Prior knowledge:
With about 375 residues, the protein is an alpha/beta fold. The protein has 3 domains: about 10-70, Winged helix-like DNA-binding domain superfamily/Winged helix DNA-binding domain (Arc Repressor Mutant, subunit A, Orthogonal Bundle); about 75-190 and about 365-385, Nucleotidyltransferase, domain 5, CATH 3.30.420.40; about 200-355, 2-Layer Sandwich (Nucleotidyltransferase, domain 5), CATH 3.30.420.
Amino acid sequence: MWCNRSVASVGEVFALIRGRGEITRTEIAALTGLSRTAVGARLAVLLDSGLVKECEPAASTGGRPATQLSVASDAGIVLSVAVGLSRTRLAICDLAGAVLALADIDSEVALGPDDLMPDVVKGLDVLLQDFPGATVYGVGLSLPGTVDAARGCSCGSAILRGWDGVALRPYLAALPSIGDAPVVLDNDANAIALAERGDDDDVLVVKASSGLGAGIIAGGVLLRGANQAAGEFGHNKVVAAQGVPCRCGDTGCLEAIAGGWAIVRTLQQQGRSVRHLRDVAELATDGDPEARRLVRDSGRAVGAGIAPAVNLLNPAVIVIAGDMAGVHEIFVAGLRETLYGNATAEATGALLVRPATHGDRSATMGTAKMVLDQVLSVPAIDALV
């Protein structure tokens, strides 16, 4: 919340411009309490840095139209690496987080980072050839499961055992264009939450793909938990999965009956030719009754699984992301049955359930935003200029 005071720094003025998208000098002065001279001095620094640009004048209500200011999104780029269990997506984004280039790698994460990360570096190097001379502000890297952001590695993940404790920043240092740019690491569901929160301060993002996870935004703050393990609800024990083996090595996990990998396993045991949840989603969309049943049953199990979280957090919105977003209506039909039956009326009365706005680009865009929120933060801009 901005208040009238005359000590707003260059970084705070930049944050205001970034948050508003477009804004005039007069509006900046009104929101910060800075004098016209002080606003001009701070904007001169930002304009000289190339991070801010002047846009077409706003529509006039009489008199000379005011010039708008916005972030110069083409002043640099960030690299995004969203690692998934069956697909890793690489992207180059501008300073507004818009995707400029994309590439996919078929992931074999079980083989460990020594197998995948060199391919990631090669893929990024190819994408960067179309952006010669561009300033790389940072690299975002998202992983399924728990991460240690400070050490830059996966940490105790039940599904990334070969990655546990392996520092990932050194792999990316092989890209000469990165230089001293930071590498920012986080969980994939957290990244999706950053991309999908919109204007809401209380959002529960459910990533339903091969595995299950959640990104939690409460009071406008992304909750990571004491050990960065918030949202790992896929390995909650549920009665319906009692005795069913999970890929984590335990039994009775929600994922064992509702995760995409479990659905694929069921269909493969029936002799169906499917390799990934995306194949199942395609079958369900085409009207295959068994695929539709399994997707809806998964929704029912997930709805029951997140009902306690809805009671505890009282989100305004639940966002369905991941590959299940491709069969949103079928999945959510099952989810609503058990969610509304197990959560309180107070918590669900005005609850909105919607698919991810950015589709299969959510993780990519959120991973880029992780970097932008760090390198374009108030302290970072103040230090830069």
